[in-house]
Predict the 3D structure of the following.
Amino acid sequence: MEKNVTICAISTPIGNGGISVVRMSGNESKAILQKISNVCTDKMEVRKMYLSTIRTKNFNEQALVVWFKAPHSYTGEDMVEIQCHGGIVIANGILDALVENGATLAEAGEFSKRAFLNGKMSLDRAEGVIDMINAQSAEAVKAGYNLLSGKLKERVSQIQSKLTDCQAKLEVALDYPEEDIEYSTTQEIKQEIETALKSIDDLLKTTATGRIVKNGINVLILGKPNAGKSSLLNALLGYNRAIVTDIAGTTRDIVEDTFVYKNIAFNITDTAGIREANNIVERIGIEKAEECVKSADIILVVLDGSKPIDEQDEKILSLVKDKVVLYVVNKIDLPKKMTSTFDR
């Protein structure tokens, strides 16, 4: 990152809407704003909105502008925000005008990067910002907010403080053995270290749950061709996401989608039916399905209840023997021929 470069970017999603926000960060923010607007930037008060005419190459726009003076801004630098009418053309036109007058397009995440480098936020808080933006469920938003509000940093700081205190007690005992100082016993220090280790273990145990809250639960649908995997996917999602026919091998590639249940995202993956395939395209799809087993949190093995368990089913069961599996017996409206049961 070049310290003296003034960066700019569109902060709101690209598309039609009521308002779009274009912002700059850097020493030249006010000077660049002066070049494209009718606001007298020398008389601007901090954190105050000004109605301004923004001049671009092809059109003028009425917008609200606000100035944040360093270090009291998101990035810790001088910042300017331009709140214009929503729309792809308007926001891009203003962005182009900023670049033409000396600003540089920001890289992905560069505003948060500058905030971190300028001491405005810690790494965990920066990660919390990204997690909240990318959240697909209410629980993911809560987890991102906990990072943003510094709760993880607070817990780590408490553990660090305890360990630093132990280190200081040990150093005093070693460096000044002849002084009349009330030393901590070995047992006391050992107990404090064990307490810190337990706190670390408790924190590490939350990582699996944290990953699920942040990224969702990866659910893989596996089974023979024409067992009803795509029908199950469509039923879970509530609409026809995958093509369903009575022809075995209709699904030849990975089909993915997400739905939210009780504030947790479930990432569903439908796969090609597992069988010995002569068609190269279908064979590649089957290989992908077998590869997906490794990253799945839960596997739904779909079994055709109208047919007995065969070698293809046994192969599938061997693929998932070390995973969390739910067996889904389909086609129960037909005469039952499946007699095997599974206890795993």
DSSP finds ten helices and eleven strands in the chain.
